[in-house]
Amino acid sequence: MSPNPSPGRLLVVDDNKVNRLLLGRGLEQQGHRVAFAENGRQALEMLHQAEYDLVLLDIQMPEMDGYQVLDKLKSDLDLRDLPVIVTSALEELDSVVRCIEMGAEDYLTKPVNPVLLRARIGASLEKKRLRDQQRELIRRFATAEVAQDLEESGFALGGRFVEATAMFSDIRGFTTLAESQSPADTIELLNTYYTLMFEAISGQGGVVNQMVGDGLMAIFGAPLPLENHGEQAVRAALEMTEMVDLFNLDQAAAGKPTIRIGIGIATGQVIAGYTGTQRRATYTCVGDTVNLAARLESHTKVAGVPILIDEVTRQSLSEAIRADDLGTVAIKGKVQEARIFSIPIGQKV
Amino acid sequence: MEGQGIIDPKIYNELKELMGADYVVEIIDTYIQETEGLIQQLPQALGAGDAATFGRLAHSIKSSSASLGAVNFSLQARELEMLGKANDLAGVGAKLEKLTAAFLLVASRLKELRDEP
User: Fold this and answer.
1) What is the domain-level CATH number for residue B32?
2) Which residues from B are below 8 Å from A111, CB to CB?
3) Is residue B2 part of a domain?
4) How far apart are CA A298 and CA A130, in angstroms?
5) B34 is in which domain, residue-wise?
6) What is the ipTM of this complex?
């Protein structure tokens, strides 16, 4: 049989040595790397010591049987997504059903048919690869807590009203900047910039949910509730401006252009939910609060200050943070004028 | 031919082709050694009235024996497995003796096959 194009690291758990040899041989012939455990206890030890892509699990074993292993795996945050294929005799269908209910992904009957073995292992590894990719994407775009929430909620696409704080941020004069340097430099600058902004935002419990060109949108208080989301957002904004200052020092030292950012923050009710399709969904917030935050961000240019917040956010701030009242201004798309506040940067909070 | 019924030639030949002749030698030797060990543990479990262990041991014998083509022997082991699971070990002694005797034939037939060119 030809070697598998995408080999995996497999753990075969079976108390019968002949079964281990037979399965192991079949899998090695298909190009996989195989390790063996003689019972459940040994398997769990090995799974905690090294990383595997898939487990082939016998049900009836001494010391710790397959059910107990599944139970332990499924209650272990690090191991619960590891795919398990149960190996059993044809007549043990009841046991297989119980294992599938406990979270096993698939099953194979012994004696194992090599064609089925190849197909099932291939499908399981492929699914795992997709899950890992998805997790990596979420990890990149959200905090650990949110990523976990998304996985646990099974990516439900429904929407709901939540109290949250929306933040918009972008780079001032970015077009001019991009014209003055090579495309490679621009992309590198953007990547560094995003890395810094992500750190500041997730450090305060926020989630970056949109990035367009040089602009980004972040939400504080959704999808997971966050105490003092208004103040957290303002703290993140202050950190973002500090990071930009540090970044500028590096840029200047390297003879490269420096940047300035503008940030708008508003708090209130937002409609939050996952939009898109099951395959490609993003967490989105829409509503007046979100629009106001976007308007405040663009108003920073007019006001000539880096951070602008609305009145609700101002009210949520503790005394530790200074905010200057800039009075009321007309906001595009709003009937009523909005009272806005500037957060002076460089303040120690 | 004598011994044909002990090991199903179709299953055995498929296994040999799949695993390679060298590897089959290793599998046969391991099977004989392991199964001997399992069979020796059966009277102990029976003596201790430990039906669960008795059933599990018989299950293990059943499983690997089927893979090597020892179909009838595997069915005998299955019968013991079921009795163990049903916690019905009374009168199982005679069946255990039959299983032990049957294994000698399985082992000797497998050794013949192993030593075939």
Assistant:
1) 1.20.120.160
2) 11, 66-67
3) no
4) 39
5) 9-115
6) 0.90
